[in-house]
# Entry
Amino acid sequence: MIKTLLVCAVLPLSAAIVQPVKVEGGQVQGVAGKDTSITAFKGIPFAAPPVGDLRWRAPKPVVPWQGVRKASEFGNSCMQNIVAERKPWTYEFMAHTEVSEDCLFLNVWTGAKAAGEKRPVYIYIHGGGNNEGSGAVPAYDGEGLAKKGVVVVTVNYRLGILGFFTHPELTAESGVHASGNYALLDLIAALHWVHDNIAAFGGNPDRVTIGGQSAGATDVHCMVASPLAKGLFHGAIAESGSSVSGLGLMGAATLANQEKTGEKFAEAKGAHSIADLRKLSWKELTAPVQGVGRFGIVVDGYVLPMSAGETFAQGKQNDVPTLTGCNREDIGGGSTHPTTTVEQFQRDAQRYRDLATEFLKLYPAANDDQAKTASNESAWDSERANQYFWAVSRAKTAKTKAYLYFWEHVLPGPDADRYGAFHTSEVPYVMNTLYTSERPFTEEDRKIADMMSSYWVNFIRTGDPNGKGLAHWPSSSEQPGTTFELGDKAAVIPVASKERLAFLETYLMKPRTP
# Structure
């Protein structure tokens, strides 16, 4: 049970900004939210449409418009295959707008009555594997946090091959000897837009926090690692996206390697030049190509001069307070109904190589029931340890604090017993958007959403999640070896037992031969 809740200040119930707001490109007129104390500005362009010759180029300045642009509807989502749901991710977690290459739009929710109020700003970067998703996803609705005094921004960015394609010809034409990472350049353009325009919505450009979940969390880490984003934000939230392996940027390819993949792709498409590829439709581009891997984040020497791990090791990151965590049934985490047999568990233990014998001593399993328990315990310990040692590594060069959490509340619904506290299930609670879902929420769920969103709002305001009426959440350095359990309770818990944590430190932190 939740024993402590933040008593939030009562905000004005009268309408927020009602007059048109001048931004880069022209004027925009917002609309009242479900709560009339909030005004939403949807579908604001923050860059030129990246179409035609602008496909696979850094975002260009927004195209000006005449008159007042009505900002009452979300803009197009970036190119992807839209599906209504993919359980456990039901309607509220999915994109539903039309898709187009003309998709560089952002959305703003504010409770400010006028410019100059200097409310803290939260820029939320959607998840979806950098292949799907949108700033218009219902669970990301900004009204829930705006009612607690934050100006909320959600943003679209190019996805899949349109966001990450790399090719020697693109590198040559770029002027910075880099290609790929167009999605990250979109996000940096959005950060600049917020810096230059958010004061008109009552936001404070000197108190900006970036946040995201899953791929959005990885993109947050990229912003922390990129010199191009320096000074544009002051806090970072990475939900289900931090790992000791690469400090949150796992598997990033080198420019040279990904350029070779780009050449193979072009050849498979029968394209002799980038001009030929720019003539193809998005469906032609995204049709599968045998033997060519997907394109993703690349260490390009420009957006990312080096890997995130190297960036942190050299102390060259954008050093801001960071809040990060994982879920009990996260990807790679435990299972509500494990099916592991003792034979399977012993086989799986071999991934620890020379440490496998020690692992089996720490997680003993003499029969199938014990194997199921040991499988979950080892998954949860490993998940939490990965994040904890991420924070330990980060602390070697960072002067700011890190706060870790472990989410364990089960999102209600007909499949709750199957999926548990699954990947993304914390999002409606931290965004305070239970109202976007038809799941059978209880009063306890609403209390948890109030608690979670209050921690998040406090962090967005100050870089520290703690506040009046909330259980104390220590930083990773304040109580070493612990994380903060959130959901049905809010309490400090050990990352793992002393012996298991020492084992995981050896496994995760010490270099080993491949």
The two ends are 46 Å apart (CA to CA). The chain has a mean pLDDT of 93.
